[in-house]
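request received
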Amino acid sequence: MTFENLNLIEPLLRALKTEGYSKPTPIQAQAIPVLLERKDLLGCAQTGTGKTAAFALPILHLLHQDELFVKGPVGIKALILTPTRELAIQIGDSFTAYGKHLRLSHTVIFGGVSQHTQVKALRDGVDILIATPGRLLDLMDQRHVKLQHLKMLVLDEADRMLDMGFIHDVKKVIARVPAKRQTIFFSATMPPEIASLANTILSNPVKVEVTPVSSTANTIQQSVYFVEKNNKRKLLHHLLQDRSIATALVFTRTKHGADRVTRQLNDAGIRAEAIHGNKSQGARQRALSNFKSRKTRVLVATDIAARGIDVEELTHVINFELPNVPETYVHRIGRTGRAGASGISISFCDEEEKEFLDDIQKVIGKKIPVVADHPYPLLHAGMPKPVQQPRAATQRHGHTQNNGKNAQTPAKKKKKWYPKR
Ligand code: AMP
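response:
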């Protein structure tokens, strides 16, 4: 299968050649023909599968054809709703790359920055709008965005929109776009609320699914290190002595944790930067571009900030802390080994995280190989701990020590729905 076989227009084929894409990924091979027939699509695919091009190429193709044959009214023809700014920017970059030989315009709007330049771009007129839901609603309310000529609507990473609390904003936007349209719906997972949203907004959709939700790419070599919580920092330094780790994306559960790990790495002479929601948009973009250009070797990120980070040839993902939602693990390690490249994922697991590891292994349907031979192994239960740190009471699965008084509340384990495998 080639892109030529998919009957994409020549300017797109030329752009794909420049991008170095030799053949469509499975999601592209399945989705593009359906979308070119102007059918609705329900796509179950995670990032890293090439899903952006799976919708961007047909949008560019169809809008270009429409422009050639029927000169319609000026206005936004395609809207892509996506949960995070980073993802929005990257989708915008994809449209720039794929559409470079076409005369279709696009712009990206997201919150956290002044709306001034975004409004100006909208005033100049755009064919394709890529937006996060909150800022879009804001600008719709201010009448800077009008969607009455919309023909194509994409909901990208719908499950993340739900997780991040955007689903009401998304529904409000959908209520204000023309009913007669082509709708494209992508989600890595299909919890009931997402399935019912898909039901209400799609009409006779063709369903396409690539890797099952819970599966991790076979190209990613996964391992887990059991380690005392207090020794994670030393283990990270130890591993990073290995220069074959060219780039590493390190995940922490909290923003505070990301800052701490970054500080400790820099103190140890390892160039690291943090990316999380408390950083300004400018700082996040700077950190990302330093990482992409390899000025910094390590990017320390929280899950939300890392959504959509797409770094070519990212060699390593390190889970400094395991996520409490198993699918997040799948999303995290999907940052490496993208589009068939090989990648390595290393997870640190302390005593308290063993339950998270069990859940992850259940969901991915395999045991992650354990690396026991390292300088900071977790001491076996029953053996005295080297340092008994006074610990804040922890709350796990509803059980609290200290009767919950003064208890810290670490991220609560979320009940999630998983598809039967
Ligand atoms: P996505 O899942 O859309 O985030 O894409 C993941 C990565 O795969 C991005 O870096 C794309 O540039 C890349 N990619 C998408 N389609 C192809 C393709 N057909 N061949 C090679 N790389 C691709």
